[in-house]
Amino acid sequence: MKQQWTKEELIQHFVLLEPEKKLVEAKRTNSQLTFAVLFRYFQQEACFPENTKSDN
What we know:
mainly alpha
């Protein structure tokens, strides 16, 4: 995934639209953030992350 983002890119790629917010809100409160992050990651990369550790 890209490492450096402009403010405009962050808004374009990571702000949830209203239908997406409804998907997130339908999840349990303690899993909403995880769902939202994985949802956006999948949209960007067309796959789920293989591990949780940074490759750096």
